[in-house]
Design brief:
Structural class: alpha/beta
CATH class: Alpha Beta
Number of strands: 8
Oligomer: single chain
Strand order of the largest sheet: 1-2-4-3-5-6-7-8
Radius of gyration: 18 Å
CATH topology: Rossmann fold
Helix content: 25-40%
Number of helices: 9
Distance between the termini: 6 Å
Strand content: 15-25%
CATH superfamily: Alpha/Beta hydrolase fold, catalytic domain
Largest sheet: 8 strands, mixed
CATH architecture: 3-Layer(aba) Sandwich
Length: 304
């Protein structure tokens, strides 16, 4: 699969992480990240949209997006889920998009569309489904503060169960390959890493400025993990080193990138931090995908 513009090193990294997976009994080496490009203009259409551009990006997208209801095993309220399909001839891998603490917003839906643009089936569940007024989800909650309170009330066990249901649903999509990875932002970034400690069948996990899990939980991680962080985000970044040290000790893959001057939520708040958030985006720009002939000859779980 040729990678088109998106969160480009993320998509590329998912491919590389898969094709460089070790044979049984071998230790995985570092997964290289593509080199960043020079700082782009804020209007660069190849970049993921910021919060201000999200609604417009959705309205202009030529890709097929639809709402689906994902059943939960307890027969409770179904997960209201946004799904976007790529325009490609062959079946596609799935990326589950885990929203911020602000719920399933237009911005998260726009990022799902960007993932589809890059060739993935993007599946974005609303983790607040059934938790809002009258059994609604994010869309039913009156204010952002109220959404934040409800998201904070979700336990890791509840989130993992909902992600399990989403993964099971996604693996049965007729146009899907059956390979599934996660990508999460803020609160969702922490849950993306957390899900890797829960689900051994996960293909890869990408963490955008989310806190790391408890060190004791890392032994069961099988998926490679990529973490992307703002340099001015000490609360989150304080969790990086303990996790990185333990992952290295036990032979697991955890690659990190920290962008100087960028704050928490830099991918959404692109106009913030006096340009530092925007300068973090070259790593998301086009032109850094590894040519297919450079990839090691292993079956791809996220690229085919």
């Amino acid at each position: 699969m040729r990678l088109r513009p998106l969160l480009r090193p993320v998509a590329t990294w998912l491919v590389i992480a898969a094709v460089q997976a070790p044979a049984p009994g071998q230790t995985q080496g570092p997964v290289p990240l593509p080199a960043p490009l020079p700082a782009p203009a804020a209007t660069d259409p190849s970049l993921p949209p910021g919060e201000e551009q999200a609604k417009g990006a959705l309205e202009k997208s030529p890709r097929h997006g639809e709402w689906a209801e994902v059943p939960l095993p307890d027969d409770g309220p179904k997960l209201r889920t946004w799904i976007v399909y790529p325009e490609r001839k062959t079946k596609a891998p799935v990326v589950i998009v885990i929203h911020e603490i602000f719920g399933l917003s237009d911005w998260i839906r726009a990022l799902a569309d960007q993932l589809a643009k890059d060739g993935f089936i993007a599946v974005a569940p609303d983790m607040l489904s059934g938790r809002g007024p009258k059994g609604g989800g994010t869309e039913s909650v009156a204010s952002r503060d109220d959404v934040v309170g409800l998201v904070r009330g979700l336990t890791p066990e509840e989130v993992d169960a909902r992600l399990d249901a989403t993964r099971a649903f996604a693996m049965k999509i007729p146009a899907a390959t059956g390979k599934v990875a996660t990508i999460g932002f803020c609160w969702g970034g922490g849950r993306s890493f957390g899900y890797a400690t829960h689900q051994p069948g996960l293909g890869a996990a990408v963490v955008y400025y989310g806190t790391g899990p408890e060190v004791a939980s890392l032994a069961v991680v099988k998926a490679p993990v990529l973490g992307l962080y703002g340099g001015d985000d000490a609360r989150v970044n304080a969790t990086i080193e303990p996790v990185a040290a333990e992952m290295k000790k036990i032979g697991k893959v955890y690659e990190t990138e920290i962008y100087d001057g960028a704050g928490h939520g830099f991918l959404r708040a692109q106009s913030g931090r006096e340009g530092a958030n925007l300068r973090a985006l070259p790593a998301q720009a086009p032109g850094v995908a590894r040519p297919s002939h450079q990839s090691p000859p292993r079956a791809r779980f996220i690229a085919t």
